[in-house]
Design brief:
The complex is a heterodimer of chains A (347) and B (446). Chain A has 347 residues and is an all-alpha fold. Chain A has 17 helices and 2 strands. In chain A, α3 crosses α4 and α4 crosses α5. The longest helix of chain A has 25 residues. Chain A starts with 19 loop residues before the first helix and ends in a 14-residue tail after the last helix. In chain A, 50% of the residues are buried. The N and C termini of chain B lie far apart (52 Å). Among the domains of chain B are: 171 residues, Rossmann fold (3-Layer(aba) Sandwich); 74 residues. Chain B is built from 13 helices and 17 strands. In chain B, the strands form 4 sheets. A 6-stranded mixed β-sheet of chain B has the order 1-14-13-17-15-16. In chain B, strands 2-8-7-4 form a 4-stranded antiparallel β-sheet, with no helix packed on it. The longest helix of chain B is centred in the last third of the chain and has 24 residues. Chain B is globular, with a radius of gyration of 22 Å. Classes of the chains: A mainly alpha (347), B alpha/beta (446). At the A-B interface, α1 of A face β15, β16, α9, α10 and α12 of B.
Amino acid sequence: MKNGKLIVSPSPHIHGPLSTKRLMSDVLIALIPAFIVSVIVYGVNALIVTAVSVAGCVLFEYLIQKYLLKGEPTIGNLSAIVTGVLLGFNLPSTLPIWMILLGALVAIGVGKMSFGGLGCNPFNPALVGRVFLLISFPVQMTGFVTPPKVDSLSGASMPTEINADAVTDAVSGPTLLGYVKESLANGLTTEDIANRLSYNDMLLGFKSGSLGEIAAMALLLGFLYMLCRKVITWHIPVAVLGSMFIFSGITWLIDPMHYMNPAFHLLTGGAILGAVFMATDYVTSPMSHKGMLVYGVGIGVITMLIRLWGSYPEGMSFAILIMNAIVPLINKYMKPKRFGVCPAKIR
Amino acid sequence: MKGFRKGGIHPPEYKISKKEAIQDMPLPESVVLPLGQHIGAPATPCVQKGDRVLVGQIIGTPNGFVSSYIHSSVSGTVTAIDNQPDVRGLRSPSITIKVEGDQWLETIDRSDALIKNCTLPREAILKKITEAGIVGLGGATFPAHVKLTIPQGKHADVLIINGVECEPFLTADHRLMLEKSEEILIGVDLLCKVLGVDEACIGIENNKPDAIERLSQLSLNYPRIKVVPLRVRYPQGSEKQLIEAISGREVPSGKLPLDVGVVVQNVGTAFAVYEAVQKNKPLFERIVTVTGRSLAHTSNLRVRLGTPISSLIDYCGGLPEDVGKVICGGPMMGRAIANINAPVTKGTSGIVTIREKGAVRKQPQNCIKCAKCVSVCCMGLEPYLISKLARLERFDELEALHVTDCLECGSCSYTCPANLPLLDYIRVGKAEVLRRIRINKTQQNK
């Protein structure tokens, strides 16, 4: 007690251990397994892409906050690092550095800071950056390096004619989703394709794709960690993956020759990365559990619609951004269940 | 294990003083007894300056039904009847008595003998409870006789006794349950008789296994009473949450426990009922936990009402240098003390010292919409939204968000990772909405 004066403030007089910084560090820890897999699969390129993306996001947030918004520095809450890692995870390992930096500038500058910074942005900043790059540089953004192990482990290599127009180097190829979509369009059946796929590889990460979307097991490990630390609840990931499973299950049951099975859809593309790390972004997801379920199902259904009948092979990013836009509406109509509204027993 | 279902938090318990047996706090030099120590109209003084009073003598009479008697807690001379500052520093009518000796009213049974039997009819028991000035001792201080008088058309079938003590630090009820177990059970039995109910449940959180065991064992002799262990969760001591945890009944929004056939009383109140009915001892002292992480001797003290809080702290080793805040009550819902010389009153369950570094609030940051406030809210409200609208003074929208359901438990502010003072703004909004509802009602009545 200094000078005999006591501090007076309204209750509560104690505060819990949670802080924005701690939540963000937990998300970063949860991303470590997927990061390790991406480095194993893509080597030093994965490291470079992620590092450049993180550095870019942090730098742009610092500069914008200091010189344009003229506020206290906000990079200490680590949210820019999370955005950076997630953006990096959504990029192919061969993307030129200047494009990564441009993506980081759009993600942080347009996606986040233009709305007022953390907590004010309606759209997931990392996805804003990613979709900007995807639309601006479609060739570079879809020219994925096929990890050498895909050929050796699955026993069958991807058809080389599809790789013919690849821009980067000889071993680059489309993602599995792109490959399957094209093959199906070319008249191949799912059986032909299935012979060339190894689900083990998909689980472990030996498939072509963005850095972070390749390793289902590693991403699920991160999901478990976040659940245990109560960073997120199960609602959004389960709703997204569950609705994708049911949707693709129905189409598969109706016509198994022309629609891939649910396991394929869950293990490919950005399904798990999107469901666990992108859709669960606090700022851009609903507040009530009921709302989270609606939001998750919306993402799952839109993703499947794009995958099956849209012009893009993958629709996770678009689905999340579309549902982001509906979140205020969901928050308005999906209220948490109040205590004492429909009591079980009244005497 | 039973427990309430929706929301809630589990703050660190810090029950530092749980092993400290109840001690008698020495008599102070003088006591200040506010006439409004309860919810409802303040009492009217019935003594005059210069009068000599005895311990247990009535010095204030109730002013209406929702009011209470005030008794002298010491023997001595009334030196003043004027306005004295309370813990907040606000002045309210009080009686000051200079202590001379310790002479009790002769009707009070001061022996330790346990009196089990009571042949009084229920009206007589209720009269004794009323005249003993008993109020809810959990901290709410609602006059006990009001809750025990069941209005026409209503019916109670369960009495729930609150032995939860879910606030961190506090151990007064815990010690009382251990040391006065039999007395509490007799008190509960008397309350059953007054209410005419056949079932009483004592809810105790399972961080007090010794109290659960002792009361469970003794309750075998009391067929109406059973002990219900509860999982540890704050705010389980809140009436609506406790009722749901024990009986599964949800008190509807805006209704009272009696609407689902339940009456809730605190264990401390049950003990006071025992003393009032069996020992003729009115409510003039209570158990107060004096605790804090840097306090020299944390204690559970039996304190005469009106004793200055500062003398309790001095008795426990004095205020440590590193203390920045002193709280009257628990750290979640208690009041920060502005006036350390304010008296202990009927609602003072504890005095908690908080160290300076924990007493200063952290800098608020942007809301990241993590929805943690929504998931911890035990009433199913949206603290982030209510708080924001209240800050923007958009009070019209708050009633539709059911701000009046908020019980101000503080779980949202406690949890908020952005350190936002959610409850501060919610309180402002709730007060304004309640004020508008009152104005509307009076206009309609005209």
